[in-house]
Design brief:
15 helices, three-stranded antiparallel β-sheet, alpha+beta, 35% helix, 463 residues, single chain
């Protein structure tokens, strides 16, 4: 279980495959409460402080914390003239959160009218402006502009183009903190499976779906009536919910004749997120001065983002997110050892890159960069290693173009413009997960389930 949040164990190390940051723990608490249980009885979420440390290419650093005054002091340490602008940015971030998260994140956008209703709100939020543009408006120091604008990368977005709506993450972190599930994100997956099985339901693994079965519907559109597995078994159902990649759900599981809205042409026109190279490694020593979350930035920011999202080329430089969970939970590695993963955003498979041959040289460059910056002598201490590339996202997770986060979060692909939670093409088919509304990231995926709860019929209404 887990999908992008799967876990693998190797050489005594436990590695979370995907998400590592919990920024809206109340969503998990709500889900557990709906099942008549308490999340804290099953999963411990530990508050992190600091949240993460940014290391710039010139060697300077910026440490993100929950305390507002500590953050203002950190801004002043880098650029005293930007403190007032930083505080104004945080006021805008809070306003984006108040206006955007609660009213929009868990509400369905089935009709164009649903979208029209929020247009005045989007205008008030200046959603046409990018997160990068908003940061540049308020602070001058290039390091602070980067520190205030990189968050869309956590959900597959380009800070240069992602709507300023995503600046809310800065306030979301301040309001709810950054937490880590003890035992790893896999502990959340195990807890969710426990909720399902505790309700008398079953999780089936190693049972790939070959197609969604259809029948004629009262509306004149086809209606989902179940699924057929690759082994030929058919499972009847009143409704079908897909948390697979939305592009693959439509392209691979439904015939073209059933897809008037999400035709192959429409999927081809959709812009999908960047992909990732992720290297998981364990060391036979501990790096005690490395934080739980570290972002190691390269010499370029804007041009690197353009290489990844627009030019679709694999650059010679990179910026890295380094995850060291054993800072908080040493049980994830053998005694005296550390478990890590390092993530590098790269173009999706629209780029002309042969990952079969490019992967290992790329990993070695990452290893060298980490050794030069935050993990001295790393190449001498790696005792466990595993790597995934865009090919894994395509082949293992059936993701269109090997995108790591599904549909790219830009203004023209948000809310009604994203694949709907209630399928536009097939009655009784519902979509959740990163490729549907509201989007990627743990809060987004959980909110997509809340949307589903609003739009699915009650059992008495099913036909």
């Amino acid at each position: 279980p887990g999908g992008r949040a799967a876990v693998f164990r190797q050489d005594g190390f436990t590695f979370d495959a995907g998400p590592t940051i919990v920024t809206a723990p109340f969503l998990f608490d709500e889900l557990w409460a709906l099942c008549g249980r308490r999340r804290e009885d099953d999963v411990e979420l530990r508050w992190l402080d600091p949240f993460y440390k940014l290391r710039f290419d010139d060697g300077s650093t910026f440490t993100c914390r929950a305390d507002a005054e500590a953050m203002a002091d950190e801004v002043a340490r880098l650029s005293p003239d930007d403190v007032a602008g930083y505080k104004r940015f945080m006021q805008v971030s809070e306003r984006m959160y108040r206006l955007g998260f609660d009213p929009l994140a868990d509400k369905p956008f089935d009709t164009l009218w649903d979208m029209a209703r929020i247009l005045p709100l989007l205008i008030r939020m200046r959603a046409d402006r990018s997160v990068w543009g908003l940061a540049c408006k308020h602070v001058r120091d290039p390091r602070l502009r980067l520190a205030l604008s990189f968050h869309p990368l956590f959900v597959g977005g380009d800070p240069l183009r992602a709507t300023a709506f995503y600046s809310m993450v800065s306030f979301l972190e301040r309001q709810w903190g950054v937490s880590f599930a003890m035992g790893g994100t896999g502990a959340l997956v195990t807890g969710l499976v426990g909720l399902i099985e505790g309700a008398g339901d079953r999780v089936r693994c190693d049972a790939p779906v070959a197609e969604i079965l259809l029948a004629g519907g009262a509306s004149g559109r086809p209606r989902a009536r179940g699924v057929r597995l690759e082994n030929g078994e058919e499972i009847a159902a009143d409704i079908v919910v897909s948390n697979a990649d939305s592009g693959s759900t439509y392209r691979k599981l439904l015939p073209p004749s059933a897809r008037k809205v999400w035709s192959d042409r429409a999927i081809d026109r959709t812009r999908f997120s960047m992909s990732l190279v992720v290297w998981y490694f364990g060391t036979n020593r501990r790096y005690e001065d490395v934080e739980h979350h570290t972002i190691v930035l390269g010499p370029r920011y804007e041009d690197l983002l353009r290489d990844i999202f627009r030019r679709k080329v694999l650059a010679d430089d990179f910026s890295l997110y380094l995850h060291r969970p054993t800072k908080t939970d040493p049980s994830l590695a053998p005694e005296g050892c550390d478990a890590f993963y390092v993530l590098s955003p790269v173009p999706n498979l629209e780029a002309d890159v042969d990952w079969e041959t490019a992967a290992e040289p790329y990993r070695r460059r990452i290893e060298q960069r980490l050794s030069e910056t935050v993990l001295p002598g790393l190449e001498r201490h790696v005792v466990s290693s595993k790597m995934i590339t865009p090919l894994d996202f395509r082949d293992r997770l059936s993701s269109e173009q090997g995108a790591a986060f599904g549909v790219e979060p830009i203004l023209t692909q948000m809310a009604w413009f994203r694949p709907h939670n209630r399928s536009e093409d097939v009655d009784g088919l519902y979509l959740v997960g990163a490729g549907s509304h509201p989007g990627a990231g743990l809060p987004g995926v959980l909110c997509s389930a809340k949307v589903l709860d609003r739009v699915t019929p009650h059992a008495s209404e099913l036909v």
